[in-house]
Amino acid sequence: MTDWYWLPQQKRHTRRRARHPLPTLEKLQWEGRTDRPGIEAWHAPQGNNAPRNTKTYLGYVGKKLLAEWEAMPADERRAVVVEWIAERRTEKGIT
């Protein structure tokens, strides 16, 4: 019989501060993850330090889309990201 109890437990999905060239927008939190290469967008009406249950998940920006956005000039990137966020908020019924 194997003594399995000594094995370390798997880490839960850990969050990390996202490092990216995406714009800072009002009531929006960008959140990176260590287990995926992209970035999550969260609607955060009470701010980034508010409890998770006050936030709404908007969507995931994968590494391909992120690379496309990074290649754009800053002004164009901001406009595209604002439009993407507006679409996600509309889909979730957030005004």
Explain this structure:
The protein is an alpha+beta fold and 95 residues long. The chain has one domain (21-91). Helices cover 28% and strands 20% of the residues. It contains two helices and four strands; from the N terminus they run ββββαα. The protein has a four-stranded antiparallel sheet. β2 and β3 (39-43) form a beta hairpin. The longest helix is centred in the C-terminal third of the chain and has 18 residues, at 74-91. The chain starts with 14 loop residues before the first strand and ends with a helix.
Please supply descriptive tags for the structure shown above.
95 residues, alpha+beta, 4-stranded antiparallel sheet, 28% helix
Write the layout of secondary structure elements.
Blueprint: E1 15-16, E2 28-33, E3 39-43, E4 56-61, H1 63-71, H2 74-91
Antiparallel strand pairs: 1-2, 2-3, 3-4
Q: SS-based structural class?
A: alpha+beta
The 3D shape can be described as globular
Number of individual domains: 1
Q: What is the makeup of the main sheet? A: 4 strands, antiparallel
Low-confidence stretches: 1-8, 10-14
Give the percentage of residues in beta strands.
15-25%
The succession of helices and strands, N to C, reads EEEEHH
Summarize the structure.
This protein has a four-stranded antiparallel β-sheet. 28% of the residues lie in helices and 20% in strands. The chain contains two helices and four strands; from the N terminus they run E-E-E-E-H-H.
